């Protein structure tokens, strides 16, 4: 995939506290997940990438621009939602959206159409100081999704959202990625993440301890999950063959499907095809991959 940004030896310190330590990563088109516990450096990097704070030293570039020096240009291409996004409480929601649209040189019709994403038209004419946490979050997300941004930067975007709104958000993210928008999404709620990530970045104590494509990381950790239907299979023959493959670490029956964990995607896929099994789906158990990556870092 095409590279859309990178950092090089990036550091951010607050006095004696190192919030980011020597972070060097590349970012690519598709869905990029920033994963890690609270306080691990995810939000700090997002603020640097959004041009809100300056790094202590090192380099960062998004869409060919320096976020700190060229923030105005960058924000015309990027939609941003921060974990603690500050909006003027005295303003009406519609005024905030119109302000964003003006900055991005978007027509009023874009503002009007955006109200339907999370169904916020019933309260968008009220001042923000009367919004609940969920209402506030939906307004911020609507602002980030305005127009056709080349990139979305979302920090804990499901915070305060009900389950229906979460599903709407995930659907919108999927649509954006499918149309070529790059999404950087930071979260620690792995069990609630139904999206299939292209790249993942694991944060711990201000460092990125592992990053890369999900396929590569899953294979390195021996957590490539291959699923295929068991209809018309000779189960005894299939299981005997699978259990003889050293790279197969786990076999389980889930409904009408057989699931395999392996560290060698190609070898196991080739063996399955020799058995006449071609309807193979690959899935990633994000929580398990995260847990294994973090445990190996200790």
Describe this structure in words.
The protein is α/β, with parallel strands linked by helices and 298 residues long. It folds into two domains: 3-213, 3-Layer(aba) Sandwich (Rossmann fold); 221-297, Alpha-Beta Plaits. The protein is built from ten helices and 13 strands. A six-stranded mixed β-sheet has the order 5-6-7-3-8-9, with helices on both faces.
Number of helices: 10
Largest sheet: 6 strands, mixed
Arrangement of strands in the largest sheet: 5-6-7-3-8-9
- The fourth-level CATH homologous superfamily of the largest domain is P-loop containing nucleotide triphosphate hydrolases
Just give the CATH class of the largest domain. Alpha Beta
**How many distinct domains?**
2
The secondary structure category is: alpha/beta
Average the pLDDT over all residues and give the rounded result.
91
How large a portion of the residues is in β-strands, by DSSP E?
Answer: 25-35%
Would you identify the regions where 5 or more consecutive residues have pLDDT less than 50?
none
- The CATH topology of the largest domain is what? Rossmann fold
| SSE string, helices as H and strands as E | EEEHEHEHHHEHEEEHEHEEHEH
Helix content range of the residues, please?
25-40%
CATH-derived architecture of the largest domain: 3-Layer(aba) Sandwich
How would you sum up the global shape? Answer: globular
Instruction: Count the E strands.
Output: 13
Using the CA coordinates, give the radius of gyration.
Answer: 22 Å
Q: Kindly report how far apart the N and C termini lie.
A: 31 Å
């Amino acid at each position: 995939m095409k590279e859309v940004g990178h950092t090089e030896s990036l550091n951010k310190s607050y006095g004696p506290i190192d919030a980011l330590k020597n972070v060097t990563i590349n970012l690519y088109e598709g869905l990029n997940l920033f994963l890690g516990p609270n306080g691990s450096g995810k939000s700090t990097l997002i603020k640097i990438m959004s041009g809100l704070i300056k790094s202590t030293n090192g380099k960062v570039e998004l869409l060919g621009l320096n976020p700190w020096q060229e923030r105005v240009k960058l924000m015309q291409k990027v939609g941003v939602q921060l974990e603690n996004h500050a909006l003027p409480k005295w303003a009406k929601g519609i005024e905030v959206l119109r302000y964003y649209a003006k900055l991005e040189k978007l027509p009023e019709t874009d503002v009007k159409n955006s109200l339907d994403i999370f169904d916020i038209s019933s309260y968008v004419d009220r001042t923000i100081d009367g919004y609940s946490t969920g209402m506030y979050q939906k307004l911020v997300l609507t602002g980030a999704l305005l127009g056709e941004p080349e990139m979305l930067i979302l920090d804990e975007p499901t915070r305060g959202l009900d389950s229906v709104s979460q599903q709407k958000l995930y659907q919108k993210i999927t649509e954006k990625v499918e149309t070529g928008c790059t999404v950087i999404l930071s979260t620690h709620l792995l069990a609630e993440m139904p999206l299939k990530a292209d790249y993942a970045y694991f944060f711990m104590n201000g460092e990125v301890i592992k990053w890369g494509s999900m396929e590569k990381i899953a294979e390195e950790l021996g957590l490539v999950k291959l699923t295929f239907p068991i209809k018309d299979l000779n189960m005894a023959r299939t299981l005997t063959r699978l259990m003889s493959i050293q790279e197969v670490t786990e076999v389980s029956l889930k409904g009408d499907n057989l699931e395999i964990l392996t560290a060698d995607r190609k070898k196991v896929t080739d063996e399955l095809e020799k058995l006449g099994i071609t309807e193979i789906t690959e899935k990633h158990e994000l929580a398990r991959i995260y847990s294994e990556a973090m445990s190996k870092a200790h």
